[in-house]
Amino acid sequence: MIRQETAWVLFAAGVIFLASLFLGVWKWQQSMSSPEGTAHRYVDVAHISGLMYSFATSAVLAPLVQFSGWPSAVNATAAAVVIGMFVVTVSNYVRLAIERRTDNQMRDRKTGLRGVRDALIIGEIGGTVVLLTGFASAQL
User: Distance from first CA to last CA of the chain, Å, rounded?
Assistant: First the structure.
């Protein structure tokens, strides 16, 4: 039987995947209307990163949650943090694509980027460490 929190992680992976498919339509439309045949850099980045995050969520996070030794609340919280960071990242790429003000957010960074970067590092790595140690404690 699949754990309830695993089902939610897989559902989130499906939502991220579906959103990435729509981003692919946007990418295709921009590519078709561009003289160079390319989409804005951050439309491309949002599309690709969304696909990668959806597969990471389903292929890595979901099994770690399913076979973890931690309580459901710990697994759900850790997975939600990681998935939330994935969504924040893709959403930022979409924002950059809509604004079309840069093709390199690091070159044209704003002052508040360090705090966001730190939150992403702590959230993604920390949440994954929690899930990985829960898996290891139960399965190894």
Answer: 21
Cα torsion for 40, 42, 46, 49, to the nearest 10°?
120
CA distance 74 to 78: 6
Say if pTM beats, i.e. exceeds, 0.70. Answer: yes
Is the dihedral angle over the CA atoms 77, 128, 117, 24 positive or is it negative?
A: negative
Neighbours of 38 (CB within 10 A): 12
pLDDT digits (tens, 9 = 90+) for 101-121: 888 887 777 766 778 889 999
Burial call 53-82: b when 16+ CB within 10 Å, e when fewer: bbebbbebbbebbbbbebeeebbbebbbbb
CB 80 within 8 A of CB 57: no
Residue 121: Cβ within 10 Å count? 11
